[in-house]
């Protein structure tokens, strides 16, 4: 983290705090340039060069991850990145209304998602396509949301993956309530216990909902992993403007553990999330994980990051690429050869072609579908609205529009 004190602690007599708090352009640039280092407190098992760093605390949580398992994690990341890039391109071609890129966050999402058991529950925000993939949600179903033909149609109970939440931080409250329910129903206490994980961004930590979730989860010992992907940006607002402290340290104020993991290290994300989930299963929750990562692309396809961040920052993060370090590790240790990497690439291209084909042929839903699945029980008010809307549309019958 940078030293945000530079603009949060005005010199005595420097004038009104509001004026002193405004950073100069030099301070902003200094702040932005410091975001690529996670600091000494960063938990890392694989360096950006693909070297394995031993860890007495976390190695036991990945003792089963042999070369074959690592190849699986590599494949997961390549596939979701390829699907992400294809979806981004399809938005540019007018086939999707909007896309929310995950580029750069593959390790945080695959590592944490693969740590979950089928009986666990995940509450995502809107960028967690990689987690969705690990929960068995069909990527094609996700694309319906972004083509605006669907509101998120997967069976969230079966997948243990809640619908996407766009309202920043709101899913943290949903997750807290769900985890409290797991506790009240006695599903916590041993290795077979259940746990919940919720995903949110660095910017979301400034929302009241996240604070309330922290408070309730703490006082009820809820089996909840708060998984914060600190991708350094909340649209155009850098993390430095969200907190004086590294985000993981906030947990201490609520009385539960907080840990910062290298979010571009899939092995560390897997290990740390398994550890945190284990704490929760045994009734020692909640836990906050700050996955220190970087949003390599725009916030969404409606955003232009060149207007607010420097390209050298992006270049620095390219050297910490989550996929490349696993590739380097596998290649160096004889865990995979070129034929394997080629085969995964071919598989990813095939996956992307199928997604493209699906999107181009996705039928428009009947207009009144927006009224279905709103309530569990039929609602006369909604039914009246549906009829009114259909009658309104009938008024256009025969016209060109
Ligand atoms: C309550 C609320 N306020 C504002 C917005 C607009 N908004 C959408 S994304 C976003 C930034 C979120 O940043 P962060 O939490 O870091 O998540 P990231 O997008 O980086 O994954 C904002 C302010 C919103 N969706 N909901
Ligand atoms: Mg962010």
From TrEMBL:
<feature type="domain" description="Dehydrogenase E1 component">
    <location>
        <begin position="75"/>
        <end position="351"/>
    </location>
</feature>
<keyword id="KW-0786">Thiamine pyrophosphate</keyword>
<dbReference type="Pfam" id="PF00676">
    <property type="entry name" value="E1_dh"/>
</dbReference>
<dbReference type="GO" id="GO:0000287">
    <property type="term" value="F:magnesium ion binding"/>
</dbReference>
<dbReference type="InterPro" id="IPR050771">
    <property type="entry name" value="Alpha-ketoacid_DH_E1_comp"/>
</dbReference>
<dbReference type="InterPro" id="IPR029061">
    <property type="entry name" value="THDP-binding"/>
</dbReference>
<feature type="compositionally biased region" description="Low complexity">
    <location>
        <begin position="10"/>
        <end position="24"/>
    </location>
</feature>
<protein>
    <submittedName>
        <fullName>Pyruvate dehydrogenase (Acetyl-transferring) E1 component subunit alpha</fullName>
    </submittedName>
</protein>
<dbReference type="GO" id="GO:0009083">
    <property type="term" value="P:branched-chain amino acid catabolic process"/>
</dbReference>
<dbReference type="GO" id="GO:0016624">
    <property type="term" value="F:oxidoreductase activity, acting on the aldehyde or oxo group of donors, disulfide as acceptor"/>
</dbReference>
<dbReference type="InterPro" id="IPR017596">
    <property type="entry name" value="PdhA/BkdA"/>
</dbReference>
<keyword id="KW-0670">Pyruvate</keyword>
<dbReference type="InterPro" id="IPR001017">
    <property type="entry name" value="DH_E1"/>
</dbReference>
<keyword id="KW-0560">Oxidoreductase</keyword>
<feature type="region of interest" description="Disordered">
    <location>
        <begin position="1"/>
        <end position="24"/>
    </location>
</feature>
């Amino acid at each position: 983290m940078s030293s945000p004190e530079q603009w949060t602690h005005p010199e005595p007599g420097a004038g009104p705090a509001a004026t002193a708090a405004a950073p100069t352009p030099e301070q902003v640039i200094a702040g932005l340039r410091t975001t690529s280092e996670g600091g000494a407190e960063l938990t890392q098992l694989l360096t950006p060069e693909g070297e394995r760093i031993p860890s007495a605390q976390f190695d036991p949580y990945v003792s089963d991850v042999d070369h074959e398992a690592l190849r699986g994690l590599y494949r997961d990341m390549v596939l979701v990145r390829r699907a992400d890039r294809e979806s981004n391109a399809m938005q540019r071609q007018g086939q999707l209304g909007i896309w929310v890129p995950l580029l750069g966050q593959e390790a945080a999402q695959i590592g944490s998602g693969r740590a979950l058991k089928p009986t666990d529950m995940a509450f995502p925000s809107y960028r967690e396509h990689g987690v969705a993939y690990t929960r068995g949600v069909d990527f094609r179903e996700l694309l319906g949301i972004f083509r605006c033909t669907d509101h998120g149609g997967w069976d969230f109970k079966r997948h243990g993956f809640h619908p996407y939440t766009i309202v920043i931080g709101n899913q943290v409250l949903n997750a807290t309530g769900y985890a409290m329910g797991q506790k009240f129903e006695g599903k916590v206490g041993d290795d077979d216990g259940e746990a919940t994980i919720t995903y949110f961004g660095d910017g979301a930590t400034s929302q009241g909902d996240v604070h309330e979730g922290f408070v309730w989860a703490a006082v009820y010992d809820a089996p909840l992993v708060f998984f914060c992907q600190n991708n350094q940006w909340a649209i155009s607002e850098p993390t430095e403007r969200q907190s004086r402290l590294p985000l993981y340290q906030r947990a201490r104020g609520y009385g539960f553990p907080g840990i910062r993991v290298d979010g571009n290290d899939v092995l560390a994300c897997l290990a740390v999330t398994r550890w945190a989930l284990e704490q929760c299963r045994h009734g020692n929750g909640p836990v906050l994980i700050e996955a220190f990562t970087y949003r390599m692309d725009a916030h969404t396809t409606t955003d232009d990051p060149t207007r607010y961040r420097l390209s050298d920052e992006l270049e620095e993060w390219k050297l910490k690429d989550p996929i490349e370090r696993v590739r380097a590790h596998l290649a160096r240790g004889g865990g995979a050869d070129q034929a394997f990497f080629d085969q995964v690439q071919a598989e990813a291209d095939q996956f992307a072609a199928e997604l493209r084909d699906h999107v181009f042929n996705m039928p428009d839903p009947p207009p009144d579908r927006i009224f279905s699945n709103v309530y569990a029980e039929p609602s006369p008010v909604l039914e009246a609205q549906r009829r009114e809307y259909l009658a309104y549309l009938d008024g256009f019958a025969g016209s060109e529009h």
